[in-house]
């Protein structure tokens, strides 16, 4: 019986914040807001993400520290947080508009993550692109 208790204790240590990584220093990331429909200027912001932290937390941090950046999201019961609006511009089903999530890697490659803002884990120096567009 001592072995299962020891394994449970070891598992609990893995679940405690900060135990999965030795580096607790936040990583810098950029957030680029583009509107392909209204053609306003592209806006660029900088923020930080905690080690292994999710994009949603970094966006919340940015909004808390920069009054010129706002966003809203809805919580889908099956797929999690869904980006609804950025800086007061919201997607609309009738107009077929939405906020697309793209990521520009430090090497310049642009990818479309297969997860959303609630699951994507940014790496240092990535540029998160929030692009308002049509489907």
UniProtKB/TrEMBL annotation:
GO terms for cellular component: extracellular space. Keywords: Signal. It comes from the Eukaryota. Residues 1-21 form the signal peptide. One of its GO terms (molecular function) is cobalamin binding. Residues 73-134 form the Transcobalamin-like C-terminal domain. GO terms for biological process: cobalamin transport. This is Transcobalamin-1-like. The gene is LOC103366637.
